[in-house]
# Entry
Amino acid sequence: MYIKTGTLFFIMIIVFSSCQKEESIVGIQIKSPENVAKLVTQDLFTNTEIITFDRPQFTIHYAEVAYALGVARYAGLVGDGAVLDQLYNRYLKAIKGNIQNTANHVDINAYGALPLELYRHMGNEELYEQGIKLADSQWANPLPNGLTRQTRYWVDDIWMIAILQVQAFRATGKQIYLDRTARQIVAYLDKLQKPNGLFEHGEGSPFYWGRGNGWAASGMAELLSELPADHEHYTRITSGFHTMMNALAVYQTDSGMWRQLVNVPTAWEETSSTSMFGYAMVVGVKKGILPEEVFKPIYRKAWSGLLEYINDDGQVREVCIGTGKGPDLQYYLDRSRTTGDYHGQAPLIWFATSLMSE
# Structure
Protein backbone atom coordinates (compact mmCIF):
# COMPACT_ATOMS: atom_id res chain seq x y z
CA MET A 1 0.00 0.00 0.00
CA TYR A 2 1.37 3.39 -1.00
CA ILE A 3 1.02 6.34 1.42
CA LYS A 4 1.96 9.84 0.38
CA THR A 5 4.72 11.51 2.38
CA GLY A 6 2.42 14.28 3.64
CA THR A 7 -0.17 11.75 4.80
CA LEU A 8 2.48 9.66 6.57
CA PHE A 9 3.80 12.77 8.33
CA PHE A 10 0.28 13.62 9.49
CA ILE A 11 -0.22 10.07 10.82
CA MET A 12 3.10 10.23 12.66
CA ILE A 13 2.04 13.48 14.35
CA ILE A 14 -1.22 11.87 15.51
CA VAL A 15 0.60 8.79 16.87
CA PHE A 16 3.22 10.93 18.61
CA SER A 17 0.54 13.14 20.16
CA SER A 18 -1.39 10.06 21.34
CA CYS A 19 1.75 8.62 22.94
CA GLN A 20 2.45 11.88 24.70
CA LYS A 21 -1.12 12.01 25.97
CA GLU A 22 -0.93 8.39 27.16
CA GLU A 23 2.37 9.03 28.97
CA SER A 24 0.82 12.09 30.60
CA ILE A 25 -2.20 10.09 31.78
CA VAL A 26 0.04 7.31 33.13
CA GLY A 27 2.14 9.88 34.98
CA ILE A 28 -0.95 11.35 36.62
CA GLN A 29 -2.13 7.87 37.63
CA ILE A 30 1.27 7.01 39.11
CA LYS A 31 1.17 10.22 41.13
CA SER A 32 -2.41 9.92 42.29
CA PRO A 33 -3.00 10.94 45.92
CA GLU A 34 -3.21 7.25 46.87
CA ASN A 35 0.11 6.36 45.29
CA VAL A 36 1.87 9.48 46.53
CA ALA A 37 0.73 8.74 50.08
CA LYS A 38 2.02 5.18 49.74
CA LEU A 39 5.40 6.33 48.39
CA VAL A 40 5.80 8.98 51.08
CA THR A 41 4.98 6.38 53.73
CA GLN A 42 7.63 4.04 52.36
CA ASP A 43 10.15 6.89 52.28
CA LEU A 44 9.81 7.47 56.03
CA PHE A 45 10.84 3.91 56.80
CA THR A 46 13.84 4.00 54.47
CA ASN A 47 15.37 6.51 56.89
CA THR A 48 16.39 4.56 59.97
CA GLU A 49 17.74 7.60 61.78
CA ILE A 50 15.13 9.55 63.73
CA ILE A 51 15.44 13.34 63.72
CA THR A 52 15.78 14.60 67.28
CA PHE A 53 16.54 17.87 69.01
CA ASP A 54 20.08 18.38 70.24
CA ARG A 55 19.30 17.84 73.91
CA PRO A 56 20.50 15.39 76.56
CA GLN A 57 17.12 13.66 76.53
CA PHE A 58 15.67 11.80 73.56
CA THR A 59 13.25 14.39 72.16
CA ILE A 60 11.83 13.93 68.68
CA HIS A 61 11.91 16.87 66.28
CA TYR A 62 8.53 18.33 65.33
CA ALA A 63 9.21 17.75 61.60
CA GLU A 64 9.54 14.02 62.25
CA VAL A 65 6.39 14.15 64.38
CA ALA A 66 4.45 15.92 61.63
CA TYR A 67 5.63 13.33 59.08
CA ALA A 68 4.87 10.31 61.25
CA LEU A 69 1.48 11.77 62.18
CA GLY A 70 0.60 11.98 58.50
CA VAL A 71 1.72 8.40 57.93
CA ALA A 72 -0.40 7.24 60.88
CA ARG A 73 -3.45 9.00 59.48
CA TYR A 74 -2.88 7.43 56.09
CA ALA A 75 -2.49 3.97 57.66
CA GLY A 76 -5.65 4.47 59.66
CA LEU A 77 -7.58 5.55 56.58
CA VAL A 78 -6.59 2.50 54.53
CA GLY A 79 -6.62 0.08 57.49
CA ASP A 80 -2.92 -0.80 57.28
CA GLY A 81 -2.12 -2.23 60.69
CA ALA A 82 1.38 -3.23 59.59
CA VAL A 83 2.32 0.41 59.03
CA LEU A 84 0.92 1.37 62.43
CA ASP A 85 3.04 -1.40 64.00
CA GLN A 86 6.09 -0.07 62.14
CA LEU A 87 5.46 3.40 63.53
CA TYR A 88 5.08 2.05 67.05
CA ASN A 89 8.34 0.16 66.79
CA ARG A 90 10.14 3.08 65.17
CA TYR A 91 9.35 5.35 68.11
CA LEU A 92 9.52 2.72 70.84
CA LYS A 93 12.41 4.45 72.58
CA ALA A 94 10.36 7.63 72.87
CA ILE A 95 7.16 5.80 73.77
CA LYS A 96 8.85 3.85 76.53
CA GLY A 97 10.93 6.82 77.65
CA ASN A 98 10.00 9.72 79.87
CA ILE A 99 9.68 12.64 77.45
CA GLN A 100 10.14 15.79 79.52
CA ASN A 101 9.94 19.33 78.29
CA THR A 102 12.87 20.66 80.27
CA ALA A 103 12.98 23.85 78.21
CA ASN A 104 9.18 24.31 78.37
CA HIS A 105 9.25 24.61 74.60
CA VAL A 106 6.31 24.30 72.23
CA ASP A 107 8.34 22.42 69.61
CA ILE A 108 9.10 19.60 72.05
CA ASN A 109 5.58 19.20 73.41
CA ALA A 110 4.27 18.77 69.86
CA TYR A 111 5.56 15.18 70.00
CA GLY A 112 2.54 14.29 72.17
CA ALA A 113 0.27 14.48 69.11
CA LEU A 114 1.91 11.35 67.68
CA PRO A 115 1.25 8.88 70.52
CA LEU A 116 -2.31 10.23 70.73
CA GLU A 117 -2.82 9.48 67.01
CA LEU A 118 -1.39 5.99 67.43
CA TYR A 119 -3.61 5.49 70.48
CA ARG A 120 -6.70 6.31 68.42
CA HIS A 121 -5.87 3.44 66.06
CA MET A 122 -4.16 0.97 68.39
CA GLY A 123 -5.84 1.53 71.76
CA ASN A 124 -2.61 1.25 73.74
CA GLU A 125 -3.02 2.99 77.10
CA GLU A 126 0.65 3.91 77.45
CA LEU A 127 0.32 5.91 74.24
CA TYR A 128 -2.68 7.73 75.69
CA GLU A 129 -1.00 8.49 78.98
CA GLN A 130 2.13 9.85 77.34
CA GLY A 131 0.25 12.11 74.94
CA ILE A 132 -2.19 13.45 77.53
CA LYS A 133 0.64 14.19 79.95
CA LEU A 134 2.31 16.39 77.35
CA ALA A 135 -0.98 18.08 76.43
CA ASP A 136 -1.77 18.90 80.05
CA SER A 137 1.77 19.97 80.92
CA GLN A 138 1.53 22.55 78.13
CA TRP A 139 -1.09 24.35 80.21
CA ALA A 140 0.49 23.85 83.62
CA ASN A 141 0.61 27.20 85.37
CA PRO A 142 -0.88 29.19 82.48
CA LEU A 143 -0.44 32.92 81.94
CA PRO A 144 -2.97 35.27 83.59
CA ASN A 145 -4.78 35.63 80.25
CA GLY A 146 -5.28 31.87 80.05
CA LEU A 147 -2.64 31.20 77.39
CA THR A 148 0.08 28.59 77.72
CA ARG A 149 3.44 29.75 79.03
CA GLN A 150 4.87 28.39 75.80
CA THR A 151 3.37 31.39 74.00
CA ARG A 152 6.03 33.18 71.95
CA TYR A 153 4.03 34.59 69.01
CA TRP A 154 5.81 32.74 66.24
CA VAL A 155 3.36 31.82 63.50
CA ASP A 156 4.58 28.19 63.58
CA ASP A 157 3.06 27.81 67.05
CA ILE A 158 -0.47 27.91 65.68
CA TRP A 159 0.04 24.37 64.41
CA MET A 160 2.44 23.22 67.14
CA ILE A 161 -0.05 24.01 69.88
CA ALA A 162 -3.23 23.19 67.97
CA ILE A 163 -2.11 19.74 66.85
CA LEU A 164 -1.37 18.57 70.40
CA GLN A 165 -4.46 20.03 72.05
CA VAL A 166 -6.87 18.99 69.28
CA GLN A 167 -5.41 15.49 69.33
CA ALA A 168 -6.05 15.43 73.09
CA PHE A 169 -9.67 16.35 72.40
CA ARG A 170 -9.95 13.60 69.80
CA ALA A 171 -8.62 11.07 72.29
CA THR A 172 -10.76 12.20 75.24
CA GLY A 173 -13.73 14.16 73.93
CA LYS A 174 -13.07 16.78 76.65
CA GLN A 175 -14.02 20.32 75.67
CA ILE A 176 -11.19 21.91 77.63
CA TYR A 177 -8.69 21.02 74.92
CA LEU A 178 -10.70 22.85 72.26
CA ASP A 179 -11.21 25.82 74.59
CA ARG A 180 -7.46 26.12 75.16
CA THR A 181 -6.68 25.90 71.45
CA ALA A 182 -9.34 28.39 70.41
CA ARG A 183 -8.21 30.96 72.96
CA GLN A 184 -4.62 30.54 71.83
CA ILE A 185 -5.40 30.88 68.13
CA VAL A 186 -7.50 33.99 68.67
CA ALA A 187 -4.53 35.59 70.44
CA TYR A 188 -2.25 34.73 67.51
CA LEU A 189 -4.81 35.99 65.00
CA ASP A 190 -4.99 39.30 66.83
CA LYS A 191 -1.22 39.59 67.04
CA LEU A 192 0.08 38.23 63.72
CA GLN A 193 -2.63 38.27 61.04
CA LYS A 194 -2.59 41.42 58.94
CA PRO A 195 -5.52 43.06 57.07
CA ASN A 196 -4.40 41.37 53.85
CA GLY A 197 -5.17 38.01 55.48
CA LEU A 198 -1.56 36.79 55.74
CA PHE A 199 0.50 36.20 58.86
CA GLU A 200 3.81 37.76 59.83
CA HIS A 201 6.46 35.25 60.83
CA GLY A 202 6.58 36.77 64.29
CA GLU A 203 6.97 39.99 66.20
CA GLY A 204 9.86 41.95 64.71
CA SER A 205 9.79 39.88 61.51
CA PRO A 206 7.00 41.34 59.33
CA PHE A 207 7.39 38.97 56.39
CA TYR A 208 4.87 36.56 54.92
CA TRP A 209 6.96 33.42 54.88
CA GLY A 210 5.28 30.60 52.97
CA ARG A 211 5.63 27.70 55.39
CA GLY A 212 4.97 29.94 58.36
CA ASN A 213 1.64 30.81 56.82
CA GLY A 214 1.21 27.12 56.06
CA TRP A 215 1.57 26.28 59.75
CA ALA A 216 -1.11 28.89 60.52
CA ALA A 217 -3.48 27.57 57.86
CA SER A 218 -3.00 23.94 58.92
CA GLY A 219 -3.33 24.73 62.62
CA MET A 220 -6.61 26.55 62.10
CA ALA A 221 -7.82 23.70 59.90
CA GLU A 222 -7.06 21.17 62.65
CA LEU A 223 -9.09 23.14 65.16
CA LEU A 224 -11.97 23.96 62.82
CA SER A 225 -12.31 20.28 61.94
CA GLU A 226 -13.52 19.78 65.54
CA LEU A 227 -14.69 23.15 66.91
CA PRO A 228 -18.50 23.37 67.19
CA ALA A 229 -20.21 26.28 65.46
CA ASP A 230 -21.70 27.51 68.75
CA HIS A 231 -18.28 27.90 70.42
CA GLU A 232 -17.58 31.43 71.62
CA HIS A 233 -14.49 31.74 69.42
CA TYR A 234 -15.83 29.97 66.32
CA THR A 235 -16.85 33.14 64.47
CA ARG A 236 -13.54 34.89 65.12
CA ILE A 237 -11.48 31.93 63.97
CA THR A 238 -13.58 31.17 60.88
CA SER A 239 -13.36 34.85 59.97
CA GLY A 240 -9.57 34.78 60.17
CA PHE A 241 -9.51 31.51 58.23
CA HIS A 242 -11.75 32.90 55.48
CA THR A 243 -9.67 36.06 55.18
CA MET A 244 -6.50 34.02 54.83
CA MET A 245 -7.92 31.56 52.31
CA ASN A 246 -9.26 34.38 50.15
CA ALA A 247 -5.82 36.01 50.19
CA LEU A 248 -4.15 32.75 49.20
CA ALA A 249 -6.53 32.43 46.25
CA VAL A 250 -5.16 35.74 44.97
CA TYR A 251 -1.50 34.80 45.45
CA GLN A 252 -1.61 31.31 43.89
CA THR A 253 0.67 31.19 40.85
CA ASP A 254 -0.40 30.12 37.38
CA SER A 255 1.26 26.74 38.00
CA GLY A 256 -0.86 26.17 41.11
CA MET A 257 1.94 26.78 43.60
CA TRP A 258 2.60 29.34 46.31
CA ARG A 259 5.90 31.10 46.86
CA GLN A 260 8.60 31.15 49.54
CA LEU A 261 7.36 34.65 50.37
CA VAL A 262 3.67 34.48 49.56
CA ASN A 263 3.29 38.06 48.32
CA VAL A 264 6.63 38.50 46.51
CA PRO A 265 6.32 37.74 42.75
CA THR A 266 10.07 37.12 42.37
CA ALA A 267 10.23 34.54 45.18
CA TRP A 268 10.65 30.90 44.21
CA GLU A 269 7.79 28.42 44.25
CA GLU A 270 7.94 26.40 47.47
CA THR A 271 6.38 22.99 48.02
CA SER A 272 5.80 22.64 51.77
CA SER A 273 3.65 25.77 51.92
CA THR A 274 1.70 24.66 48.85
CA SER A 275 0.92 21.29 50.47
CA MET A 276 -0.16 23.00 53.68
CA PHE A 277 -2.43 25.49 51.94
CA GLY A 278 -3.97 22.74 49.83
CA TYR A 279 -4.57 20.60 52.91
CA ALA A 280 -6.21 23.47 54.80
CA MET A 281 -8.51 24.20 51.88
CA VAL A 282 -9.60 20.56 51.61
CA VAL A 283 -10.47 20.56 55.32
CA GLY A 284 -12.31 23.87 54.97
CA VAL A 285 -14.40 22.57 52.08
CA LYS A 286 -15.16 19.25 53.80
CA LYS A 287 -16.39 21.07 56.90
CA GLY A 288 -18.56 23.44 54.85
CA ILE A 289 -16.52 26.43 55.97
CA LEU A 290 -15.24 27.24 52.48
CA PRO A 291 -17.40 27.21 49.33
CA GLU A 292 -16.56 24.11 47.30
CA GLU A 293 -17.19 25.77 43.95
CA VAL A 294 -14.50 28.34 44.71
CA PHE A 295 -11.84 26.39 46.57
CA LYS A 296 -11.96 22.89 45.08
CA PRO A 297 -10.51 24.12 41.77
CA ILE A 298 -7.82 25.98 43.73
CA TYR A 299 -6.63 23.01 45.77
CA ARG A 300 -6.90 20.71 42.77
CA LYS A 301 -4.68 23.12 40.83
CA ALA A 302 -2.25 23.10 43.77
CA TRP A 303 -2.08 19.29 43.66
CA SER A 304 -1.39 19.33 39.93
CA GLY A 305 1.36 21.87 40.49
CA LEU A 306 2.95 19.77 43.21
CA LEU A 307 3.11 16.72 40.96
CA GLU A 308 5.84 18.43 38.98
CA TYR A 309 8.02 18.48 42.11
CA ILE A 310 7.50 14.92 43.37
CA ASN A 311 10.20 12.39 42.48
CA ASP A 312 9.36 8.79 41.60
CA ASP A 313 10.38 7.71 45.13
CA GLY A 314 7.87 10.09 46.71
CA GLN A 315 10.39 12.73 47.77
CA VAL A 316 9.33 16.30 47.13
CA ARG A 317 11.76 18.94 45.88
CA GLU A 318 12.06 22.69 46.52
CA VAL A 319 11.44 22.50 50.27
CA CYS A 320 12.66 25.45 52.31
CA ILE A 321 14.94 24.35 55.14
CA GLY A 322 14.02 25.04 58.77
CA THR A 323 13.79 28.79 59.19
CA GLY A 324 13.79 31.05 62.21
CA LYS A 325 12.54 34.63 62.15
CA GLY A 326 14.49 36.69 59.63
CA PRO A 327 15.53 40.37 59.59
CA ASP A 328 14.70 41.15 55.94
CA LEU A 329 13.21 39.78 52.74
CA GLN A 330 16.55 38.65 51.37
CA TYR A 331 17.01 36.32 54.33
CA TYR A 332 13.98 34.32 53.18
CA LEU A 333 14.83 34.47 49.49
CA ASP A 334 18.31 33.09 50.20
CA ARG A 335 17.17 30.12 52.29
CA SER A 336 18.41 26.78 50.98
CA ARG A 337 16.06 24.40 49.20
CA THR A 338 16.17 20.66 49.76
CA THR A 339 14.61 17.42 48.53
CA GLY A 340 12.93 14.93 50.85
CA ASP A 341 13.12 17.25 53.86
CA TYR A 342 10.55 16.22 56.47
CA HIS A 343 9.15 19.77 56.50
CA GLY A 344 7.96 18.97 52.98
CA GLN A 345 7.20 15.25 53.25
CA ALA A 346 4.85 15.81 56.21
CA PRO A 347 2.35 18.20 54.63
CA LEU A 348 2.56 16.33 51.34
CA ILE A 349 1.10 13.20 52.94
CA TRP A 350 -1.47 15.31 54.83
CA PHE A 351 -2.62 16.79 51.53
CA ALA A 352 -2.58 13.47 49.66
CA THR A 353 -4.53 11.68 52.40
CA SER A 354 -7.11 14.47 52.61
CA LEU A 355 -7.71 14.12 48.86
CA MET A 356 -8.14 10.36 49.24
CA SER A 357 -11.08 10.90 51.58
CA GLU A 358 -12.50 13.86 49.65
